[in-house]
Amino acid sequence: MNEFDAEVVVVGAGPAGSAIGAYLAQAGHEVIILEKSGFPRDKICGDALTPRAVKEAGFLGMELPASDGWHPNKGLRLIGGGHRLELDWPDIDGTPNYGLTRPRMSMDEAFARHAQRSGARLFEQVRAMSPDIGDDGWIRGVHASGTDHRGRRVGPEAHFRAPIVIAADGVSSRLAVSMGLEKRDDRPMGIAARAYHTTPRHADDYIESWVEMRSTNAAGDSETLPGYGWIFPLGDGTVNIGAGLLDSSPQFKSVDLRKVMGQWIADMGHEWGIDESTSLGPIKSAALPMAFNRTPHFHRGLLLVGDSGGMVNPFNGEGIDYALESARIAAEVISTYSRYPQTVMRRRLEEYPALLGDSLGGYFTLGRVFASIIGHPALMQFGIKYGMGVDVVMEFVVKLLANLYRDPQVSEADLIDRVISALTRIVPATSNV
Questions:
Q1: pLDDT tens digits, residue range 57-106?
Q2: Which of 2, 58, 85, 87 has its CA 20 to 30 A from that of 398?
Q3: Measured between alpha carbons, how far is 269 from 262 in angstroms, rounded to an integer?
Q4: What angle do CA 352, 22, 340 make, to 5 degrees?
Q5: Cα-flanking dihedrals φ and ψ of residue 288, to 5°?
Q6: Which candidate, 195, 187, 154, places its Cα nearest to that of 42?
Q7: What confidence score (pLDDT) does residue 64 get?
Q8: How far apart are CA 257 and CA 388, in angstroms?
């Protein structure tokens, strides 16, 4: 049996796993990251960093130049209810006023290589098979199988030992499930479908969101769906086109989202110069775990970050920002306490879910309410029809959906900022309810 020792073992090298690996390595910790695939590898996603995510990448010390494939955008174009609005990202102190797009095929590798340059040991094509659990019930490493980054076998029974293990292995999180952490049924769940197309508008300055997605029911009637369609220009000759749907809708289990998306592309494709002939591959779909749909985020030595802990924004389906944020918060706690005596360290690591709840819990609770409301087609249609024609309402909506507002306790804030901030403070944190 091959054995490897570290202070922290991270399972999964997506943005969350790579980010926490980079942070801890930069702080001088011995970190091993296990990735079941080899880079480059794909992930079904919108391929976009909002300004919040760009800020988080900056905290990591990453450079994101256009020459490396990062395509900037200056705002969001909203289409629905007969309206078409272009809204620039708001100016918020400390947050860039632009977003970025890049295909996940290369984006995730950029995060992983940054973790390597920071000092983390990355093992590609090595799958974590099961947790190694001590007599006291706490995790103390993982058993894995595969080849390392040099192509050498490390298993079938390789043992990666560490007193702290990070689950960054995505929505299904085999590691978390092995530790008894199942998904919660009282949290919203989404599904997204995505495809790539070539288009002459690949360098558009705005990412685009169609907030009025429709489906035809069994009676032949058209219904509004609780979801949205997106078009994200990638600046490389292509766009990422996708559609998302929430399970708060009674149509969730019966709607063929790929068919809905295909019809939507046929209806609006002329605006972007796309059709079946411009497709670069099939439509693929994946689940979106929202609003902390797996808890607790610290359990017997295992910390959950990113999708493994259900950290997708219920308002807009964004997950990369919250993957990076949770990684930063977890890394700060680990770096502070990991070298304390074991009994003290274990107790102090309980601060992680509390800090995560303080940072995102109230906002995600509002997102759960939003997901419930738009599950009613009549309410959804009413909001689109009458809300999109009012500028102040749409400014509020964009700030709320993108989680881009000023904290009045930190900086000067307008009325919209104050309202959103107040709402996130008065609702109970979703990680605790």
A1: 999 999 999 999 999 999 999 888 788 889 899 888 889 999 999 999 99
A2: 58
A3: 10
A4: 45
A5: -120, 105
A6: 195
A7: 96
A8: 25
